[in-house]
Amino acid sequence: MSNSKKMPYFFNTETHESTWEPPAGLSKEDVANLPGAEYLKGGAPPPGDQVRASHLLVKHSGSRRPSSWKEANITRSKEEAIEILKGFQAEIAGSPEKFAELATANSDCSSHAKGGDLGFFGRGQMQRPFEEATYGLEPGTMSDVVETDSGVHLILRTA
C-alpha cells in the first residue's frame, strides 16, 4: 500500500520499480495470488470500514449556510451551482491533480486549503447523500454531482 495515496501499487522486487497498473503478462488469477491482493479493487475495505475522499463544494442560496471563505453572501441558484460543477467535471476529466487544483481555487469548503481533502471518515460522519456517494465509489474514481444540505459536490474517493 502507498503511504501517501493509501492505494495499492505493484512493486517489482527484481527491478525495484513500482507502478499503479498490474505488470504486463500477468493474468487476473496471477494478480489475485500476489501478496496484498486483498487491497485491490473489490477487495477488503480499509481498516474500520473508513474511506478517504476529497470534494469540491459549490454552495447556493438554498444551502444550509450560504457563505464561504471566498464569498460572504452566496446568491447563486442551485441550478447555477450545478452548472458550475459540471464545468469543473469536464475540466477535471479524470485527473486527481486537476481536481485538487480546482478544489483549492474554487471549493466553498474550508477543505479547499488541502485540495479538497477531507481525510478518512466512517459511516455516520457525513451527510447521508455524501456518505452513500463516497462509499459507492471505487478508490480513484469521481462522482457525478451530489446534492446535500451544504450545497452540491463533486467527490473524489482517494482510499
Word description of this protein:
Residues 48-159 form the PpiC domain. It holds the Pfam family Rotamase. This is Peptidyl-prolyl cis-trans isomerase. It is a single chain. This protein is an alpha+beta fold and 159 residues long. The chain has two domains: 1-44, no CATH class; 47-157, Chitinase A, domain 3. It is built from four helices and six strands; from the N terminus they run E-E-H-E-H-H-E-H-E-E. It has helices spanning 28-32, 78-92, 96-106, 128-135; strands spanning 10-12, 17-19, 51-58, 117-121, 146-148, 151-157. The strands form two sheets. Strands 4-3-6-5 form a four-stranded antiparallel sheet, with helices on both faces. Strand 5 and strand 6 form a beta hairpin. Helix 2 packs antiparallel against helix 3 (96-106). The longest helix is centred in the middle third of the chain and has 15 residues, at 78-92. The protein is elongated and about 60 Å long.
Mean pLDDT figure = 87
Overall outline:
elongated
Which assembly state applies to the chains in this document?
single chain
CATH class value of the largest domain: Alpha Beta
Compute the number of structural domains. 2
Q: Helix/strand-derived class?
A: alpha+beta
Strand order of the largest sheet: 4-3-6-5
Tally of helical runs? 4
Q: Report the sheet with the most strands, covering strand number, pairing sense and barrel closure.
A: 4 strands, antiparallel
Measured as a percent range, the helix fraction is 10-25%
CATH topology of the largest domain: Chitinase A, domain 3
Strand content: 15-25%
Question: How far apart lie the N and C ends?
Answer: 11 Å
Question: What is the CATH architecture assignment of the largest domain?
Answer: Roll
